[in-house]
Amino acid sequence: MAETVTAYVKNVRDTAKSFWEGMSVTLSYMFRKPITTQYPDRTGVPVRDTIPARYRGFLEVDMDICTACQACERACPIQVINIDIVKGDGKTRPKLNMERFDIDIGKCMYCGLCVEPCPTGAIQHTREFEGAVMAFNNLTLRFVPDDRVPFPAYKVPKGSEAFPRRPLGEITRALLKAWDAPPPPFPSQADLDALNKKADHGGKPKPAGLDPAAMGRQLAAKALNVKDDKPKLQKVLEEAMAGTDCGDCGYPDCFGYSDAIAQGKESSTEKCAPGGADSKAMLETILVSLKTGKVPEAPAAVKPAEPAPVADSRQPEAGPKGPPLAQTLGKEELYKVVFDAMAGTDCGDCEYPDCDGYTKGIVYEGQTDLNRCAPGGEDTRVKLYEIMLGTKPPPK
Amino acid sequence: MQSFLDNLIRNAGHDPSTWPWTQFVYLAGMGAIAFVVINFAAITAGIFSWAERRVAARIQSRVGPNRVGPGGFLQWIADAVKLLLKEDLVPDEADQFLFRIAPYFMMVGFACVFVCLPFSHRLIVADMNIGIFFIIAVTALIVVGIIMSGWSSNSKWSLFGAIRSAAQIISYEIPAGMALMIPVMLAGTLSTQGIIRAQGGWPWQWFLFDNPAAFAAFFIYFISALAEGNRTPFDLPEAESELVSGYNTEYSGMRFSYFFLVEWGNMWIMSALATTMFLGGWQLPGLTPERFDALTGGSAVVAELASLALFAGKTLFFVFVVMWLRWTLPRIRVDQMMNMCWKYLVPISFAGVLFVAVWMLVVHAVPALGIAMRVLLTAAGAFGVGAFVVRTLKNIRDTGDKFDFTSNW
Lengths: 396, 409
Hints:
The structure holds 2 protein chains of 2 kinds.
Chain A: H1 2-30, E1 59-61, H2 71-75, E2 81-87, E3 96-104, E4 123-125, E5 140-142, E6 151-152, H3 170-176, H4 189-201, H5 212-225, H6 230-240, H7 254-262, H8 276-292, H9 325-328, H10 331-341, H11 355-363, H12 377-388
Antiparallel strand pairs in A: 1-4, 2-3, 3-5, 3-6
Chain B: H1 2-11, H2 22-59, H3 75-85, H4 96-113, H5 131-152, H6 156-187, H7 192-197, H8 212-228, H9 240-243, H10 253-278, H11 289-294, H12 297-326, H13 334-365, H14 367-398
Helix pairs in contact in B: 1-2, 2-3, 2-10, 2-12, 3-10, 4-5, 4-10, 5-6, 6-8, 6-13, 8-10, 8-13, 10-12, 13-14
């Protein structure tokens, strides 16, 4: 009995005590500061400032130190970066101008591969990450705001190691403000007509445009003058290049590549990636005239002006060419060039034992089928037709 | 109520006994009062839903709803509008008629309690002489509504919830009723205003500190009221983790919101009743009810408002305690719930009633003994509150944290 009473009283006392303890604990939490971070609008510091420094957020390009080498565009595995270049002669206007530098943040996968090849550190990941927009089209960051006002490329001073940059994030943040703006309206028929009319009316080359063929002939003439003076020849060759010192050619800078060509150690003309088809055409013209000893003739008829800028972004081979290399080079030189054009995998798909066999077939044995290099695909076809016939390959 | 309207008619220059429209005036007056009271209940329930979420959040180191209106205060309006606009679904296999009317039973049982619930010295819908009895009786209507909704839903979860709820409410009505008998005995009346008048403004004049049995009865009543209101730790009928949502599982939209209106509105009722019975209700310290009655003009208005504020303040404190308990205690099991009721609350409340009967005789013979007991209990209560505050501050200090009630709202 006494035990039962003791247990009964103990139960009541335990209940009271656990209420007492429990309620004082919960009340004490009531009077402490909640740990919740009220993202996004009631944080003590902006959330981006609490993110680690090497966070890969939206990309940012400081156009003031961008050399227009397009290394980032080439590095991007999913073609998020789009750069449009117009070339100048390097005297009255800068050699490279950027008409467009777009990064589609909606597609970007933040891999960081574009940051690594950049020679000046112009393209960087910021710590911006808030990508919610009302209109999907607004997600494209346009670092050249107006394509009618091209941005001149930065020329790296020789020997400089550091490139001053605007504070990281400033430029992208300014662009992000435009994200809340309504998207550009879909052009009406009247707008399109007006645009076409304008294009027809001003049907001359774009102001900063450059005729690579004419410039190539100029340079070729210069090169002939200094044919035996290797350093001077190197200077002429370097002028045909983009001059961004991007290193994409495998040489440390433009000097290295042009010097190798001048010394005869390098025969490929297509390694200047920023210069693209223009540089290649100019270098080829120079090399051909050095070989033949005379500057190629300008085409008889003045070539009609380049079609409207929209037309040929996919046709890098624009511009006239000299005669095909097959007619200008000796067999041995031709062999090298043709061999270079192939994929070099020795796969045997062409029914020759290896690339060497197919090349010999073309150069020495009169093989006319230029479509056999399977690993090289369309690229190799284009090159082979250009080398052997000076034409574009027929569509398959 | 009637005298108030009679006064109005007299002021308009008529004699109520001869005036032909008296009955219609009474009817219109009743309609107006009912409208005000039901809206008061609905709005307090809505505000409590917001307050409970903020309190819960603070206790769990969160912030809670703070975006709609100042401090998130208008959240409850947004929620209510959302619920009103939702589709009112009736399950295919449900008993259509019972399913539809069950929420109204709960609403009626809930709203009727407000008839006898005092708000201030003069503010009460009807000061019935059987006030407490009436309140206990109409509260039982809620059980009818709960069982109806659980049965008619034709769902296992609903039925389980309803049966648990019925068992719980019927069991806990006994200790609750016995605990309420103690202030009734001390005051000698069932009228709610009469019970408040029998107490005083100062804590030692409250029934809470009158004698040990009344002190215990207060806690028994509070625990039983929690159980009757299906509040944690007695939320077995709507245990989310076991029964989805209990008797209201199949409800949606406006009918669903009635259940929650009743649950949150009940917090006001149980707290107001505790204030009335044990904590001196609207009694202002230093102002006896007789002198209060005699006040006229501006001072009467001021005193009236002060008594209203005091009553509301005490009630809201207990509403907060109910919320606070919810975030302190886990749910108890069914057998524990029954154990607690029948083995502890019922015997102790019966013993308390007997003790009070004897104690009243003793105090009648030796009044000094009654005063000594009041002083002793009040001192013990004050000491308890002080010790609790110290303990709470120590809890904050021991974790290296600090008292901070104002930041990060």
